[in-house]
Amino acid sequence: MAEVLTCKVGHGSVAYRRSRGTGRTVVLVHGNSSSSRTWHHLLDGPFGERFRCIAPDLPGHGGSAPLTDVDDYALPGYATFLAAFVRTVDVRDAVIVGWSLGGHIVLEAAPALRAAAGFVLFGTPPVATAASLAEGFLPNPAMNIGFSADVSPQDAAAYAATFLSPESTVPTDDLVADILATDPAARAGIAAGIAQGRFADEVAIASSLSRPLALLHGEAEQLVSLDYLRRLELPHLWHGDVQVVPGAGHAVQEEAPDRLADLLTRFVAEL
Questions:
Q1: Can you tell me the mean pLDDT for 52-59?
Q2: Helix (H, G, I), strand (E, B) or coil at 27
Q3: Phi, psi at residue 21, to the nearest 5°?
Q4: Those residues with Cβ within 8 angstroms of residue 135's Cβ, 6 or more apart along the chain or in another chain
Q5: How far does CA 100 lie from the centroid of its chain?
Q6: Which of 58, 54, 50, 43 is nearest to 100 (CA)?
Q7: What is d(CA 139, CA 112) in angstroms, rounded to the nearest whole number?
Q8: Domain count, the chain
Q9: H helices of 153-256, where?
Q10: Which helix (H) or strand (E) holds 29?
Q11: For the segment 13-53, what is each residue's pLDDT rounded down to a tens digit?
Q12: Is residue 161 within 8 Å of residue 172, measured between CB atoms?
């Protein structure tokens, strides 16, 4: 089983999980209203036995302390956190994997992660403007729950269902628990930051990366547009295309962890 550890980043305590592997370090960044628990298949399986996986709980999520300044819950604040966390635990040359909001955070932080070996994103359409948000994401009313401070158990269940494929039989109890445990100010802060345009030109960042970038996509994704992803011109895109994962929705790590592990292993091997 992965160890659960803590460290101090800035003024706050950060919880993170570390697998037993000793190979290439892989940093796993979870999404909005989630936690490092979502990576348990990777951390506790053969992938985590082989590679040194480190998965932080973002501030206001899981076991990490909430932020005192709500403005820091916007994407620039989370990007600053990720860069500081990587320095604190000394994993600067890691492969950085981001899921959903975690992918946006990884892109925002990429210019500061100069020693990173490569980047893997899924559930994350790189966006440049407010207009591209509407192109990159599919219309799904439940997505609004992820930007609402107050979330009921029923809302949490509806939001968690969008993480999976429509016909999924994967239990959502842990997903719902993470949603309900998230600091309500985190969701409000993320929403305010987006509304204020406080996010980088992620398309420009992704296009200018000098290190390999892999984009993965669940075949039954309910939140992100595959057509949008395939229209992006990304010179260093791994294998020149978006890698579609059959049988998975937004949370590939929950529905197709073995396939995800295979793709990540190949990505690391080809660096």
A1: 98
A2: strand
A3: -65, 160
A4: 125, 225, 228
A5: 4
A6: 58
A7: 32
A8: 1
A9: 153-161, 173-181, 184-195, 202-208, 226-231, 252-255
A10: strand 23-29
A11: 999 999 999 999 999 999 999 999 999 999 999 999 999 99
A12: yes
Structural domain of 215: 3-269
Q: Residue 263 CB: number of other CB atoms within 10 A?
A: 20
pLDDT, mean of residues 133-140: 95
Contact of 225 with 125, CB cutoff 8 Å = yes
Query: Residue 137 pairs with which residues in a beta bridge?
Result: 224
pLDDT at 218 over 90: yes
Kindly state the tokens that stand for 98.
């981001």
Q: How confident is the model over 162-174, as a mean pLDDT? A: 97
Q: Which residues pair with 26 in a beta bridge?
A: 53, 95
Strand partners, 12: 9
Write out pLDDT tens, residues 221-235.
Answer: 999 999 999 999 999
Name the amino acid, one letter, at 158: A
- Residue pair 202/176 in contact by the 8 Å Cβ criterion: no
3-state helix, strand, coil in the chain (%, to 5): 45, 20, 35
The strand pairing partners of 245, in sequence order, are 218
Determine the residue type at 50: R
Contacts of 90 (CB under 8 A, 6+ apart): none
Torsion of CA 150, 152, 158, 162, to 10 degrees: 40
The 8 Å CB, 24+ separation contacts for 150-158 are: 150/184, 151/33, 151/179, 151/180, 151/184, 151/187, 153/180, 156/180
What's the pLDDT at 173? 98
Task: Give the CATH number, domain containing residue 182.
Answer: 3.40.50.1820
